[in-house]
Please model this.
Amino acid sequence: MTGLFAIMRKEWRSYFVTPAAYIVLAVFAVIAGFFFYSMLAFYVVSSLGGGSFGQAPQLDVHTMLLQPLFLNIGITLLFLLPMLTMRLYAEEIRGGTLELLKTTPVRRMEVVLGKFFAALGILLLMLLIVLGYVLLVAHFAHPGWKALAIGFLGLLLLGSAFLALGLFISSLTRNQIVAGIVTFAVFLLLWVADWVTAYAHGGVMHFIAYLSITTHLNNFVDGVFDIKDVVYYLSLIFAGLFLTARRMELAE
Amino acid sequence: MPYYWLFLKGTPLLDVNHISKSYGPTLAVDDITFQARKGEVLGFLGPNGAGKTTTMRMITGFLPPSRGAVTVDGISMRQDPIAAKRRIGYLPELPPLYPEFTVEGYLQLVARLKKIPSAQRRAAVDRALERAALGQVRKRIIGRLSKGYRQRVGIAQAILNEPPLLILDEPTAGLDPRQILETRQLVRGLAGEHTIILSTHILAEAATTCERVIIINHGKLVAVDTPENLTHRLRATDTVHLEARAPAAAAVAALRGLPGVLRVEPLSEQAGLARLEIECQNLQAREALARRVVEAGWGLAELRPVELSLEEIFLSLTAEAAAPSADAAAAPEAPLQ
Model:
């Protein structure tokens, strides 16, 4: 465990010394803030408009505000998380420090998990920013704690799966930029994979649609907790971490 | 059992047993076997690309050997890599540094990676800083240090946990002459407590710092011996360098006929001084040379035995290994007898 914490501390230090973490967090805060403000403003205008015509429709905070917010945050993570994972292994391979990690008595899994948890820490900070925005309005229009918690759990699982896959891709190359671009491409393909449902049929279609990250995120965003979706994300995370460890075992 | 086993006084700290490494069809390291005993400084010599780094990487557990086994202090690297790695300090060719860290912060990190108990970490870092003479730069950012300092941080990292086996891959490469001297001094200071394996392509370095030298070429072990023995083995005859105030042609003619003199070769003639290289059968021949020069009334300016430099040893050994008929390379355990 000492090794795991040592790696985690080291990665956090690198994130904050090279301003990568600050930039990702700041960019994320601005983008998420813009999404949140737009949705809130739209919600306010809609509710005022509806009320003035006496129709007073049931404007639900969850469907009007949180659902679109969560989906947009998911897309923002798709863009930003590759920047957190691309350097994790590529930099060690290029800088020769992989030799240090592989020749000191630290277990492979400690290194893999240490890096994963360090990136996860930044992801948690990002989600904390979103939570801050949501809590700002919770006082005026309560979204329902359960739906809120499920939505955040969905984002956390989505983000973790991205991080685990990104970590693996970073372990395949010595070039950060290559790692970043490939990671982004993989995320995007996973995001749009459910489009096949529009034109394909049969087993292959089901399989590809199952792989889609969006299919599984939708339930969480709707406030529905389905163990099947949790299993999907957890398998992606385990696959990513396992492949990374395996890759490190074979890396030459 | 290898022939040099007899010369080993203690039990081997490191046992490298028939290791090979192949990348697809190419064999980077071909069946290398050697041992190192406690406290020994072993030089690992070979031209660039001979397989030095690959061999070192297999010893340190960075690369798994395709065949063969590495045992450190009785612990198999394959069966218990964590325990084996605890006993090794390794300085790779490129020091594995994190440029954004301070020297001290970096060593603290490595101490954690090396599983040094938290109570001893502070002391271990202080000791390594002191031994590598890094006290003044302990708070500096590694990325802003000079190459020599970075190399020393790399060495400090390797000795941090006081490992019985220290592996240094080209510790002086790319340093300026003063830094090279400082690094050599540092390495010599570490000898005794640690078994040190040091790779280099600079032969003088091996001659000055190492007790035994392993020569490897094209992934094969060519010779294992002390630098003196290597010289001795390769020199069946005695070559001397003679300098006298005489016409070169006359000197050659006069000396060629002496008993025991096999070959006389003029090297140069400058300002009346003739320089000759002479191959003698024995010491008597050398004495005869001196007598003859003095009798002829030529001023004898210099008469000295020509030491075979490690460069020459190296060249002749690697050339032998390359020749198809050379039986020397066939059995790495008993080469060149």
Notes: Residues 3-87+163-232 of chain B form a domain with the Rossmann fold fold (CATH 3.40.50.300). The interface with chain A takes residues 23, 57, 60-63, 82-83, 85-86, 88, 90, 92-101, 105, 109-110, 112-115, 157 of chain B (CB under 8 Å). Confidence is low (pLDDT under 50) at residues 324-337 of chain B.
